Amino acid sequence: MGDLNIRVNTAPLVNVRVTSNLNNFTAEKRFDRSLTISDLKGRLELVTGGSAGSMTLEVLDTEDHPVCNLTNDEALLGSYIIEENYRIHVTDSTKRIGEFEDTSNVEKYELTEKEYDTRNDTARAFLKKNKLGKFNEEEQEKKRKEREEQEREENEKAATITVGSRCEVKVQGEPTRRGEVMFVGKVHFKPGIWVGVCYDEPLGKNDGSIGDKRYFEAPMKYGGFTRPAFCEVGDFPSIDYDDDDEI
Questions:
Q1: Which has the least CB within 10 A, 110, 148, 177, 202?
Q2: What is the per-residue pLDDT across 136-181, written as a single tens digit (0 to 9) for each?
Q3: Any idea which GO molecular function terms this record carries (predicted)?
Q4: Domains, the chain, ranges and CATH?
Q5: Tens digits of residue pLDDT in 173-215
């Protein structure tokens, strides 16, 4: 495999993949075939971190079979047989493998929380100045009251739901489901109060457990959790589902 200076009539630009022995990533680049190999090496410095003066270039086809080496710095890229999506592999033996990926020795600039808070060119300073987000006291107070009201309503509704009651669950975008209340209370996976239901049909998502925590017993896909707002208790008989409605 050597220097193949064969002029071929091809498009003025060629798309190639670039890899190197210095890092693990592959870059897709488009180069003008009128570039000299010397100029190409200069471009590849920015891509791979290798040095133009010490790198060697090998061309491989789309199946990674060797095609040629780009050894003549004065030759044009277009004088080599390089087709679309061929790969140019850059080797620079003067650099350590992974040298540009290892950031362990890079000095990091860090600010303390107090120092960050005193600067006026930060996102936090902008939010403070314009009273946005958590720095908008009126908006935060409004949200706090809304959360308290929502929690109060949730607690009042949950108090009307008792374990063992028949119930109907209606959630927008989902089929109406009926079953038996098996659990009412707080859970580990989401804040607030939740109602655990054993459905009459396999329209749930679990068997009454989430992860390693079990809240009630139910066959698989018959158990589910819903918010109190979506659950009504009462004398609800089982629903007869037509075949078209089964999940």
A1: 110
A2: 888 888 888 998 998 999 999 999 999 999 999 999 989 999 999 9
A3: alpha-tubulin binding; microtubule plus-end binding
A4: 13-91 (3.10.20.90), 109-157 (no CATH), 166-245 (2.30.30.190)
A5: 899 999 999 999 999 999 999 999 999 999 999 999 999 999 9
* pTM of the shown model: 0.46
Say how many residues make up the chain: 247
Contact 247, 205 (CB under 8 A): no
Question: Which of 99, 103, 105, 86 minimizes the C-alpha distance to 51?
Answer: 99
Percentages of the chain per state (helix, strand, coil), in multiples of 5: 25, 25, 50
The helix/strand/coil state of 4 is coil
208, amino acid identity? G
**What is the identity of the amino acid at 76?**
L
CA–CA dist 99, 149 (Å, integer) = 57
Return phi, psi of residue 89, to 5°. Answer: -100, 125
Helix intervals (H) in the chain: 37-48, 113-118, 123-130, 137-159
